[in-house]
Each structure stands twice: as structure tokens, then as C-alpha cells.
């Protein structure tokens, strides 16, 4: 067994100026305050979102963001064995990268986003006899509500490989399928996510 850590436990990582600046902007858009801000009394007639447009246009350094720090004690365990398994296993990710191009509008109860693994991709990447999907992990961030993994073969949509209608962001783990699903070269896979942004006052990026 080999155990490695990305960094030392409780190592304090300081964001680069670019990420610190954008993190602080997103915090203000979502009305999230730092510890120092929360301790300071705010005037009754002040609006924490009144300068939101100015924040988006400001490219200067942000004193609040410069003080932002993250404590990371994550790790990684790798296991080695001399005994080869009968079958190889891998991880296939289908969905959307969490970045600023993924925009979810505010105050919406049902926002659908789709990520596609097209047939031309599986045609080239999958072996001739296909692959067997035996476990699935559905992952969203806080406003995710439902996830479905769809399978399309030719002009026919097959039964969903998985469907989770009660997403819990606090519980994200692999779930073994009762019956493995065969996916052939040329099949298309669609990860369909449903979000509820009704509690948000501004757009949400990268979910």
C-alpha cells in the first residue's frame, strides 16, 4: 500500500491573485461574508449587493480576497497487487466541467443541463464488444436535485442507466447497479442534471 498526500495536513494554501479576486466577487454576489465582515456592524440603509455591477467590472486587487485562505488535508491512497484481476475497470466521466461557461439563471425551480458523450466518441474509444457499466456516481453541487444517465442507440433511446430523483450533495458515492449495462461503440450517453436555483438571487456558475 502506498499512501500519498497532496500536501501536509493542515497546510495553509494561499490562492493565486486571480482566483482570490474571482472568489471574493462570487462571495459578494451570493452575499457571503468573511469572518471580518461578519464581525463589523452594517449600516441599516446599506445594500451588500448595491455595487455588484462595479465588482464585476473591477479588475484590481481585492483586499478581502487577498486574505482568503484554504486549509487542505486531503489525501490519496494507492493499492498495488501482484495478482491481476480477470477484468479491467476504469472511470468514464459524462457531464459538464464546472466552469464559468455553465450558467444557471436565478429564481428557477427547474433548470435542465445536459452533458453529451456522442456516438462518434464511443465509436472510436470503446472496444468492439463494448463496455459494461456496473456502478455509477451522480454528482452535483448544492442546488442539484436530480440526475439521469441516458443511453441512445441509433434512433432509439434505451432505458436510463441510472436515475436519481433525490440528490443529496452531502452523500456522493458509487452505487452498484443491480444489472450491469452494456454500452456499445456508437452509443450516445447523456448526463442530464436538474437544478433548483429558486433560492439564488444571482446567476450560478459551474455546477
UniProtKB/TrEMBL annotation:
Belongs to the copper type II ascorbate-dependent monooxygenase family. It comes from Anopheles stephensi (Indo-Pakistan malaria mosquito). One of its GO terms (biological process) is dopamine catabolic process. One of its GO terms (molecular function) is dopamine beta-monooxygenase activity. Residues 26-60 are annotated as: Disordered. This is Copper type II ascorbate-dependent monooxygenase C-terminal domain-containing protein. The lineage of its organism: Eukaryota, Metazoa, Ecdysozoa, Arthropoda, Hexapoda. GO terms for cellular component: extracellular space; secretory granule membrane. Pfam families: Cu2_monoox_C. Gene3D superfamilies: 2.60.120.230. Residues 88-206 form the Copper type II ascorbate-dependent monooxygenase C-terminal domain. It comes from the Eukaryota. Keywords: Disulfide bond, Glycoprotein.
Amino acid at each position: 500500500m502506498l499512501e500519498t498526500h497532496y500536501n501536509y495536513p493542515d497546510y495553509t494554501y494561499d490562492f493565486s491573485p486571480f482566483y482570490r479576486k474571482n472568489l471574493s466577487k462570487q462571495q459578494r454576489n451570493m452575499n457571503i461574508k468573511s469572518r471580518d465582515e461578519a464581525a463589523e456592524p452594517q449600516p441599516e440603509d446599506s445594500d451588500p449587493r448595491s455595487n455588484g455591477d462595479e465588482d464585476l467590472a473591477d479588475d484590481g486587487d481585492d483586499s478581502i480576497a487577498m486574505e482568503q485562505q484554504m486549509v487542505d488535508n486531503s489525501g490519496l491512497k494507492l493499492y498495488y497487487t501482484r495478482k491481476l484481476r480477470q477484468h479491467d475497470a476504469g472511470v468514464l466521466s459524462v457531464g459538464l466541467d464546472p466552469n464559468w461557461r455553465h450558467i444557471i439563471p436565478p429564481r428557477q425551480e427547474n433548470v435542465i443541463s445536459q452533458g453529451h458523450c456522442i456516438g462518434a466518441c464511443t465509436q472510436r474509444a470503446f472496444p468492439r464488444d463494448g463496455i459494461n457499466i456496473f456502478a455509477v456516481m451522480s454528482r452535483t453541487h448544492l442546488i442539484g436535485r436530480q440526475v439521469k444517465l441516458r443511453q441512445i442507440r441509433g434512433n432509439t433511446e434505451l432505458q436510463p442507466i441510472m436515475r436519481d430523483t433525490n440528490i443529496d450533495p452531502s452523500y456522493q458515492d458509487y452505487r452498484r447497479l443491480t444489472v450491469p449495462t452494456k454500452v456499445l461503440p456508437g452509443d450516445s450517453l447523456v448526463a442530464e442534471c436538474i437544478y433548483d436555483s429558486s433560492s439564488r438571487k444571482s446567476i450560478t456558475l459551474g455546477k
